[in-house]
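Exodeoxyribonuclease 7 large subunit
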Amino acid sequence: MRNNKVFTVSDINKYIKALIDMDYILNNIWVQGEISNFKRHTSGHMYFTLKDQNSAISCIMFRSSVYSLNFEPKNGIHVMVQGAVSVYERSGQYQIYVNKMEREGIGALYEAFEKLKKDLEAEGLFEKEHKRPIPPFPRCIGIVTSPTGAAIKDIIQISKRRNPNIDLVIYPVLVQGEEAPKSIAEAIKAMNEWGQADVLIVGRGGGSIEDLWAFNEEVVARAIYESKIPIISAVGHETDFTIADFVADLRAPTPSAAAELAVPSRIEYISKVSNIVRSLNQLIDRRISLYSNRLLGMQNRVIFKKPMELIYRRQQDLDDLEQALHKNINNKLRTYKTHLIHTINTLETLSPLNTLTRGYSIIMDHHGQTISSVKDVKINEDVNIRVKDGFIQACVKGTRKEVEKDNA
């Protein structure tokens, strides 16, 4: 009888998986190698083998992580993967569950890309205020690219199809290799010195990050920034972004798209002009109809049909106003006359002279002051007596004060 415990295959696989999962090094590890046996499943997951000269290890990258890739993995390329080593219990196979994947040597390029991007952004080379508008009707378009690549063929074909009347001037440059950045920068400067192009397309077709690296160099970025001519960048495919794209006045996802953006469609603009002409004609017709109706309405008015009748009406109004004015003036005069007579009668009633007609008189001293008391005169003083029909001069011979009777 066996004294040792007997394990199942599942027990062993689970035990080994638990041991590996507890290893902190294997839980987060970077591994480099060459891809082989690459397969993309319909589910979106990727299965492949990572190998070097002596060994190989199976790898799986789930769909959620695949979305973050900026390149297409394939057999034969060297990559670095980050993930966790674990055991697939069903087969007992240990493998790397990959979270990230980079082209081998790409890490340093990405670091250089991010550093330059950060520095240029801080310097203001990406500011919207510096972006120049792309001219809507260019007469001449400069193209800075390789004269033999697919990009230039696409640009020429689309440009000529959209508007054959626009001149295309190609400045051939290197778009890959050590001399490419200098070649591109000098071409941009030369096109500015020439000064005949209304807009520049600067770019190339697709490729790896190494292939596109010339457009990530500072010398190219500064040449684009210093250009007086608006620049459309057209580097690689839609998912490719370079420093040149951030500095350019407009980014096109592809060279073909750059031609679409730079060259106005002759057919589209003819159609737009036709629509504008049609709209203007309709507007003019509406205005003519409006003013014609207004003119007809004015012609039917009395002032145009019988101009003298309007004058007669106004003359009649004037006569009516004149009569009303005379009537109002007479009424006012009668009112004021009645008031004046009443005032005169009141004054005459209250006048001291009116009292004189009833036998009374007024005595005044030689100053003309009225004497109302014996105290106001002296003996032998001359006085004037006012009667109803004149004055009497007299001399005071004496005075007698009347004694007041006691009412008690």
